[in-house]
């Protein structure tokens, strides 16, 4: 705990996915104070043609209160 799932389009290299996973895990450990034994990160590739149905509608439009970073958000 915690477990982070990143949904993304196919096409990123294993190196890119590993680097992203490492950075997410480091941030979770730093910000939330967990050890590396407690943090897991998964990558779920979603085809562009399926994005609206499998991600945008259920995860973004249907659950806006769960989003901490919304599409188009600038830090």
Summarize the structure.
With 75 residues, the chain is of the alpha+beta class. It contains two helices and two strands, in the order E-H-E-H. The chain has a two-stranded parallel sheet with strand order 1-2.
Structural commentary:
The protein is α+β, with helices and mostly antiparallel strands and 75 residues long. It is built from 2 helices and 2 strands; from the N terminus they run E-H-E-H. Strand 1, helix 1 and strand 2 form a beta-alpha-beta unit. The mean pLDDT is 95.
Across the major sheet, the strand order is 1-2
Q: How many individual β-strands?
A: 2
CATH topology: Macrophage Migration Inhibitory Factor
Please trace the helix and strand order, writing H or E for each element. Answer: EHEH
| Low-pLDDT ranges | none
Describe how the helices and strands are arranged:
Blueprint: E1 3-8, H1 14-32, E2 40-45, H2 51-61
Give me some keywords for this one.
75 residues, alpha+beta, Macrophage Migration Inhibitory Factor, two-stranded parallel sheet, 2 strands
């Amino acid at each position: 705990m915690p477990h982070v799932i990143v949904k993304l389009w196919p096409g990123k290299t294993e190196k890119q996915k590993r680097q992203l996973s490492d950075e997410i895990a480091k941030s979770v450990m730093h910000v939330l104070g967990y050890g590396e034994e407690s943090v897991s990160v998964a990558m779920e590739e979603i085809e562009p043609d399926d994005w609206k149905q499998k991600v945008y509608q259920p995860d973004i439009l249907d659950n806006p209160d769960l989003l901490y970073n919304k599409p188009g958000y600038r830090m």
